[in-house]
Design goal:
about 40% helix, alpha/beta, about 350 residues, 13 helices, 14 strands, elongated, 6-stranded mixed β-sheet, D-Maltodextrin-Binding Protein, domain 2
């Protein structure tokens, strides 16, 4: 449900739609654990088939339940991580892919080869959140350089105690919990903290299920983990936030610090990718996604994420119903994005 980032270069009028090819090729915890297991072994079934990010899952699942009760349509929502979700989506096995990062070039190419067109819809902002056990009374804040020191591949088997990261921290074992390598959260965190996507030590407890990470940190006083902000909100009585210092002073994740672009570089947009043309029930997919866009702001706030400006949702309706195919994110990691920048990109799409 950590250094780093390649800064987004915004140049008005020079945004390149990486997928211009598509215009030419028309030719509570148990649930999540179950969905993760299903996501690794099953193809989703139902009138609307959805898979992908565990970070986006709480939003999509809440909206799917409301849609099912009102429309008498079956919506199946599974979890296999953002990368795992795109594998199924680009193979034509799902109608919608939940994603905690933009689609990448290799995934775009796979979709192209398989004739899968997609509509990219940003739906929310998340604050990638660093948490420790409530008994941890030393790590109140952490720098991006220290997160890199903890998580980079060179740390494997070497950085094993807290005092190796900061001398004033205790000589206690450092137990790490984080996203699995099919997770968009893993991709984003490694890019933002280590400076290279997917560059990470592997001797930590990894899971595409953010509930596993939350449970692990909540049971170990020596633990540190990361995941989407909604999972902290769900378990804040058992976890403690760590402020992140990007060189401008420590900042805690919150709706306010995300909206003011203060919690950087760990703020990020969340997405759904839609392929109504390949759906068995095209009408149901359109109805569901329009319903999703309408309900998103309220549901997003209720699960702990940050809604986008209302103008973004209005544009999303237009892009969906006009069949606006492609991506404005270049098929690459996009760091330090803000709410205003996402709105600007959508207006220029």
């Amino acid at each position: 449900m950590n250094a780093r980032l390649v800064k987004l270069v915004l140049a008005l009028g020079t945004l390149v739609l990486t997928t211009s090819w598509t215009a030419r090729t028309y030719s509570t915890q148990t649930q999540v654990a179950q969905k993760v297991a299903q996501g690794n072994t099953q193809t989703t079934t139902g009138d609307v088939r959805i898979d992908g990010s565990s970070t986006v899952y709480p939003i999509t699942q809440a909206i799917a339940k409301a849609f099912e009760s009102e429309q008498n349509k079956k919506v199946s929502v599974n979890i296999s991580g953002t990368s795992g979700g795109f594998e199924k989506f680009c193979a034509g096995q799902t109608d919608i892919s939940n994603a905690s990062r933009p689609i990448l070039k290799a995934e775009i190419e796979t979709c192209r080869k398989n004739g899968v067109r997609f509509i990219e819809l940003p739906i929310a902002f998340d604050a990638l959140t660093i948490v420790v056990h409530p008994q941890n009374n030393w790590a109140k804040e952490i720098t991006l350089a220290e997160l890199k020191e903890m998580w980079e591949p060179a740390a494997q088997g070497k950085i094993t105690n807290w005092n190796q990261v900061r001398a004033s921290w205790p000589n206690r074992p450092l137990k790490l919990f984080g996203a699995g390598n099919k997770s968009g959260t893993f991709d984003y965190f490694t890019e933002a903290t280590v400076g290279k996507t997917r560059a990470s030590r592997t001797d930590y407890t990894a899971s595409e299920d953010d509930e596993v990470i939350a449970a692990g940190v909540s049971k170990d006083p020596n633990a540190l983990g990361y995941f989407g902000y909604a999972y902290y909100q769900e378990h804040k009585d058992k976890l403690k936030l760590v402020a992140v210092d990007n060189g401008k002073g420590p900042v805690l994740p919150s709706r306010e610090t995300v909206e003011k672009a203060q919690y950087q570089p760990l703020s990020r947009p969340l997405f759904i990718y839609v392929n109504p043309w390949g759906a068995k029930n095209k009408e149901a997919v359109y109805k569901f996604v329009n319903f999703y866009i309408d309900r998103a702001p309220k549901v997003i706030s209720s699960v702990g994420y940050v809604p986008l400006p209302q103008e973004v949702y209005r544009i999303a309706h237009i892009h969906l119903n006009n069949g606006k195919v492609g991506t404005v994110f270049g098929g690459e990691a996009q760091l330090d994005l803000t709410l205003a920048e996402v709105l600007r990109k959508q207006k220029q799409f």
